[in-house]
Amino acid sequence: MKISFIGGGNMAAAMVGGMVSQGFKGNEIHIVEPDADKRSELARQFGVSVGAPDDVLPASTAVIFAVKPQQLRPIASTLAPQLADTLVISIAAGVRADTLSKWLGGLDRIVRVMPNTPALVQAGISGAFASAGATADDKALAERILDSIGETVWVNEEGDIDGVTAISGSGPAYVFYFMESLQAAARAQGFEPETARKLAYQTFAGAIKLALQSDDDAATLRQKVTSKGGTTERAINALENSQVRSTIIAAASAAAARSRELGDELGRDTQE
Description:
By secondary structure, this protein is an alpha/beta fold. Helices cover 56% and strands 13% of the residues.
């Protein structure tokens, strides 16, 4: 078996690191990367084979496109003759399976994936959609790869990938925004930067750990912290009065809308 990555950036490196830690062998992984220094570093770090874009791609069980959406069309078109009936996994945001299939000359064994940045510490979650031409074995291999960087959720409709993008793909930024705000609130209370950072970050870490280990849902956990007439109740009331909940929902809706727009834009580009 050979899994080839097209692109050796942060997400590709995270996936390769997870795969190696979960039992994939270095000689089962190949990375195509234009930067020579990065190629050398990837080979040294993971014990994988590497190549430049102009090199012939080794015969591969699966090819993972880990490049920016705007770069994908020329790369896919160039590689299409070498892929034949290969499983293609794409983590390029916004590029729909039918669009990629056209760029690949009609190849339809495609799994489209939306990972997120916690994959860098093997704590990510990926949303995945399989095209009609992808087999059960294709999905199993894709899931084995994705599970090496966290958890995987399969969706039956490709449009749901836009929702995954809005919630978990963009979601870490929402969390970091709240962490940033909580840290700023601590500074406003007079704490030094390092103390403010520790209070904010560990509060998030502890709350997430508690939520993951509890049978209670988030609303119940919140209620258990919120004593009637207490400090937390007043804080929650301030958040509700500021419509923070509806603003978060609106923000995610905006992200989903932009994901759909990107798909439309890149799909129109296929017709040029």
